[in-house]
Amino acid sequence: MSTAMKSVIVGTAGHIDHGKSTLVEALTGTHPDRLAEEKRRGITIDLGFAFLEENGVRFGFVDVPGHERFVSNMLAGAAGIDVLLLVIAADESIKPQTREHFDICRLLGVKRGVVALTKSDMVDSDTLELVRMEAEEFLRGSFLEKAALVPVSAKTGAGLIELRKALSDAAANSSAKDAARYFRLPIDRAFAMKGFGSVVTGTLISGSVGTGDEAELFPRGERLRVRGVQSGGKSVERATPGQRTAVNLAGIEHTALKRGMVLAAPGKFRKTRRIDVRLESLPSARKLKQGSRVHFHAGTAETIAEVFFHGEKEIPPGGSALANLKVQDEVLVLPGDRFIVRQFSPVVTIGGGAVLDPLARRPMLRDTGRAAFLETLERGKHGEILAAMTERALLGLGYEEIVARTGWTEKEIQEALEKLRGMGRVRIVSSEPLALVSGQLFEEVRKRIIERVERFQKENPLLPGIAREDLRASLGKRVRSETFRAALEELAAQKKLDAQGELVKKAGSEIALLPEEAKAKEQIEAAFASAGLAVPSVKEVLAKLTVEAKRAEKLLQILLREKNLVRVSAELVFHRQALAQLKKQLATYKKTKGDRISVPAFKELTGITRKYAIPLLEYLDREHATRRAGEERVIL
User: Fold this and answer.
1) Could you tell me if 155 and 195 lie in one domain?
2) Which conformational region is residue 108 in: left (phi greater than 0), alpha (psi within -120 to 50 degrees), or beta?
3) HSE of 192 in the Cβ direction (CA atoms, 13 Å)?
4) How far apart are CA 104 and CA 164, in angstroms?
5) For residues 104 and 78, is the Cβ–Cβ distance under 8 A?
6) What is the pTM for the complete model shown?
7) From the CB of residue 631, how many other CB atoms can be counted at a distance below 10 Å?
8) 173: buried, middle or exposed (CB in 10 Å: 19+, 13-18, 0-12)?
9) Per the structure, how many domains does the chain have?
10) pLDDT value at position 299?
């Protein structure tokens, strides 16, 4: 099989007994009823698969069951359908189930198809013409309006060549699924195979999967290793999108795997219980009210959902609305995924639509911008969507969040950012890893930083600035550190703030002392300078000043910061000149008396008591002017 071969999934739909399975067997040589029970009962319960290679296209047929009980199976298979093969028996024409299957395919966004009028050998030409006209009437205005209508007989083989050609034509126009996207495989069957272990099957809806890959199982969250991959009944290195795929998984019992789970690229997506959607109601449905409970089907998952509308109170038959679905079981969906809703009881298909925001919040009355935001998600280009998402994110938006909410690749995110460059709507506050905030939020953070710094300096005129960490903390938890850092860097670059080192202050701001403070500061310095090494206690010096204690303490702090005074121990502060003089004395001592000095010799040299000598020697050790060696010091 060449890699260039296009993979197309054909979903066969139609009323029970209209000959779908027989037709697929006639086309492919494989009867889709795999299970013995199905053979016995003659109906397709689970998804049967058969393959046909024609004109460079590999067709995978998913036979979607016709029996009412089995419509949920049909939905499981319909998730990846490219081309619909709608089967209408010439001897019975259109039945209620024909309509329901057709509605489902329409709601799931299937764009192309072919209509087979089966059992055409059982009716005369007039009846066949009548059925053809009824079918045309039924399909008018739908995606199958211009589809080929081919009378066939599986029994005689009449029309099979024409049907294969019609399928090839429809396949030629179907859009290829993208292998560059992240891998997702909704699981429709799980079983154990002797000698292999756990195997799951499904239609690969995006990305690719190969032996040795790691995959994440949703909603459980486990990381599993892929032991092998089969597609179209053969082992392959990698399966590509649009193929019916079987994956052999290591490290998990098949009983833990269920239909409705999804295998996906690891670490990219998040499961959800709230989804914002565009919901369409079928003309045949009853009106759908606020808070209604419905059966929700997306991919192969099936759960119960409650419906809440954004704005409207209900949807009339055939209407559409923006809605928030609260689902009972966690699911994995992405924007653009199609879903179906069926009435709670009796269970009939009533509508469906497309996912807009897979990680939606609970609807709030005061959230007036939500509807406009969802319309942007529905119709906007990538750049607009990214800007709108960033503007609604209180903390800004990180790379992982963008991927989880959009499914976009790195290239798509970069392209979207490129479109926004220079518009000011979005600011990149960190590029590795990517973090974005709205231009408006960034402006607010800048303003708040300047206000905080100004207020701090007004309230603390004797302090040189606010500590960077305190400034960040003062902005609250809603400002992420990347935003703070980027805003501060920009303010410093624009010379609005000075943010060197640990302190942030207004650019060019100096500490302005009152005359009495300046005088007191000089007095403090003089008291220590004149004392040499026999310094008074800090308390004594500050007590003699005319300014109150709190300001006196701040003046001392300024002198320490300016390094005119040096704190040697908790109690002792010395003037820098006295310490410089001491280092000179030691150097002279080393030249004349050698490089070792004892505590008594040190006391004698400096003329001070032990109270000063020990803290000063420890200070000299810290300064690497001396090194302790037993009871002595080595002068370095």
Assistant:
1) no
2) alpha
3) 9
4) 24
5) yes
6) 0.72
7) 8
8) exposed
9) 5
10) 84
> 305 with 323, same domain?
yes
Q: How confident is the model at residue 570 (pLDDT cuts 50, 70, 90)?
A: confident
Is the pLDDT at 178 greater than 80, yes or no?
A: no
Asked if 310 and 272 count as a contact pair (C-beta separation under 8 A), the reply is: no
Residue 44's φ and ψ, nearest 5 degrees, are -90, 110
Note whether 502 and 528 are same-domain residues.
no
**What DSSP line would sit under 472-507, residue for residue?**
HHHT-TTS-HHHHHHHHHHHHHTTSEE--TTEEEET
Closest CA to 52 of 3, 88, 9: 9
Residue 556 is inside which H or E element, if any? helix 549-561
Buried b (16+ CB within 10 A) or exposed e, 537-575: ebeebbeebebeeebbebbbebbeeeebbbebeeebbbb
Single-letter residue type at 205? I
Tokens encoding 237: 């290195």
Structural domain ending residue among the three candidates 488, 512, 536: 512
CA distance 300 to 448: 49
pLDDT digits (tens, 9 = 90+) for 35-67: 444 445 444 434 455 667 777 787 877 765 544
User: CA 77 to CA 2: how far, in whole Å?
Assistant: 26
Three-state DSSP at 5 gives coil
Neighbours of 369 (CB within 10 A): 12
- Give the integer Cα–Cα distance in Å for 347 and 352: 14
- Does 586 reside within a domain? yes
Q: Within 10 Å of residue 266's Cβ, how many Cβ atoms?
A: 17
Backbone angles phi, psi at 524, to 5 degrees: -60, -50
| Structural tokens at position 131 | 């059925």
Residues 6+ apart with CB under 8 A from 388: 373, 376, 377, 380
Q: Over range 131-154, report the average pLDDT.
A: 91
Q: Which two tokens stand for residue 384?
A: 């607009």
Please give the backbone phi and psi of residue 87, each rounded to the nearest 5 degrees, phi first: -105, 125
Q: Which of 267, 146, 164, 172 is nearest to 217 (CA)?
A: 267
Strands 112-118 and 83-89: parallel
Phi, psi of 180 (to 5 degrees): -80, -15
Closest CA to 488 of 514, 517, 453, 515: 453
For residues 520 and 555, give the distance between their C-alpha atoms in angstroms, rounded to a whole number: 8
Range of the domain at 78: 6-173
CB-side neighbour CA atoms (13 Å) of 527: 20
Same domain, 164 and 61: yes
Contacts of 592 (CB under 8 A, 6+ apart): none
375 in a structural domain: no
CB 196 within 8 A of CB 228: yes
